[in-house]
Each structure stands twice: as structure tokens, then as C-alpha cells.
Fold this protein.
Amino acid sequence: RLHAITRDYTRLHATMLDGADKLRMRLHATMLDGANTRARNEYLRKGAERQPDYDSSSWARTALSLSVKRRALASYAYPLAFVNLTCIVWTVLHETATLSRSTTEMQSLDGAYSLTFSAMGFLLVFRLSRAAVRWWDCRASFGAITAGVRDFVDVFLIYTDGSRGQETARSGAADDACAWACAFVVASKAFLRGEKDGPARDELMGILSDEDRLAMSRASHPPLYALSMCRRCVRRAFCGTSSSSVEAGRRDAATAVEEASVRSELNKQCEFLALQVGALERLRSTKIPEVYVIHLRTFLLLYLMSMPFVFVNRWGWGTIPAVGAVSFALLGIEGAATECEIPFKPDHINHLKMDAYIMGCFANVSSILEWNSDRANGERRGDLLRADVVEETKIDVKNSESSS
């Protein structure tokens, strides 16, 4: 055990980067560390478990689901209860002859009722379709953030780190940029969910120090703070990296052009990430116009509230289950639209599973760091074999097996 600890310490010490005032371990050593990885995954997994996935191919688990959270019953429970309570009271009064038949005779409204249902059905379909589009736009933008971070990290490492075992002057900037890019994803999640305390310590274990994490959390806009740090790392890596003007003058023109091209690409990727988080902010703060929601809900309630008055003479006691089924169906559509319109809450099953997305993003970044540490220059290894040699080897192996 002591030998293993000494070996791990030696390996980590070999990956330290010489900073201005102190030694600092490289990001691929801290982020890929087993304890740090377990801490991050355990924290994010707890968040992901609150938003479990479902089997869309199973009719039994979807059509017969009794889950209140999956059906988002909380978003329309009060109007559903009010409509059905009114229906029960009116039906009981009618069927127990408490009210006269002439008082409850409203069958002449059947024609107008059918026309109202057609118009309201169109409004409901439009409402749900717009909410679904908004949900998908949110998912696409957050997916673009995770993909953009992966690309940013990969490009930055390719053009800053040297071959395996060689530390360059830009390695510190590369580590900082990759760490801030990972922090940007986590900060975006916390910002969209309205978490005032910002990312938790375990979410960024092995990525940011507590000092950096708190500085980002206290910023007025944490995602933009992290992105601004990324841009500063780009400037540090590709602007003024030479120690003197003499050394800067010695650089050939091709190197200068290449650095300018890489700097432009990385800045464009930062701009892309800023646009995505801006799109998510816009979707979070902009709802469907109020006049549309008011008009739809007013006529939806009037339609459902009038059902027992119109059909009680025809359906009798069957009015209660009929109104219950219709109100559950129509209010459920409105409830689904409300649930999906701004999908950023951590305890809603139907909202974006951002913890799971971040776990995937961190796994990809960890793999990129590992690949960069192992094959920074993308070199091939091993000997290539001819196809006929491979076939001869297979035949020899079969002959030896049969003879034995």
C-alpha cells in the first residue's frame, strides 16, 4: 500500500506545472484523479436521479402511469378539482330531484357547444406545439453548450501542449482555459435554475479551487464570468507569450499567422457559447404572450364548467365520470404546455436533465485530457501487418490447435 501511495505521489508530482509563486498540478492530474471524479459523479448522479429517463416504447409505463410528477398534475390540479367538484354538486342536485327538470334544461346549447370545442381544440394544439418547440430549443442550446465546450478544450490543447512529457509556456493557460470551460457548463446550469449560491464544491472538484468557484458564484452573471476567463486565457496563450521583444521578433511569419488563426477560432467558439447561454436566458425570461394564455384558459374553464349543466339531462349520473375524463384530458394538455414552457427546474421530471448532460460533458473532457496526455501529436504506434500475413497466422493457429 505504501509503495502504491509513493508511486501515485511520484506520478502526480511529475505532472506539476511551475507557476509564478508555487507549484500547481496539471488539470489532467486533478480532474482525472479517482477521488475527484467520484465526488463529481456522485453529486451529479444525485441530481440526475431526480429526473429519471423513461421508456418511450412501453405503452404500459406511459399510458397507465400513475405518477403525479410524470403527468405534471401539480400544474393543473386546482382547476381540475374545481371543475369536477362543480360537476359532482350539480349532478347530485339534479339526480336527487332537488332541482326541477325545467331549471336544468339546457340541451339547446349543444350546437354552440360543439363549435366552441372546435375552436378551443385548435388553441390547445397550438399552445402545446409551441411549448414543445420551446422545450426542444432549450435542449438544443444546452446540448450545443456541452458540444462547444468539448471542441474548445480539444482545440486549445492541440495548439498549446507539446509532445508527451514536454511542458510548454502555454500549458498553464491551457489548463486554466479548460477548467473555466468546464466551470462555464456548471455555472450555466446553476444560473438557469436560479440557484443563488452557484455551483457546489463537489461539482467542480479537481477543476476549480474554492476561491475561484466563489468568485464565479458571486459574479452578477457567473456563466459570462467563466467565459470571460476563457477569453483571457486565449489572450495569455497567444498574445505576448514571448519573454522579450527580441524573442518575439525571431518568430517566423508562419507561426504568427497560425497563432492568429487559432486565436480567432477559439474566440469564435467563446462567442458561440455566449450566444447559446443568451438563447437560454431569452427562453427562460420570455413566456407565451399573456393574452393568449388568458383567452385560452378562460374559455377552457367555461367550457368544462358548463358541461354538467348542458349534458346532465342526457347522461344522468354518467355526467360525473364523463366530465372527469374530458377535464383531465383537456386540462392535461394545458398542464403539459405549462410544464414544458420553461424547463429548468431540478425537481421536475419533465425538465431538462442538465446534471446528466454535464456528467457526459465532463466524461468527454476527461477523455480529451487523457488523449492529449498520451498522444499529444496524434502519432500512430505499432507495426502494420499485411492481410496475407494475418491469414497465414490464423491458419497456423488453427493447425496447431487441431494437432494438439
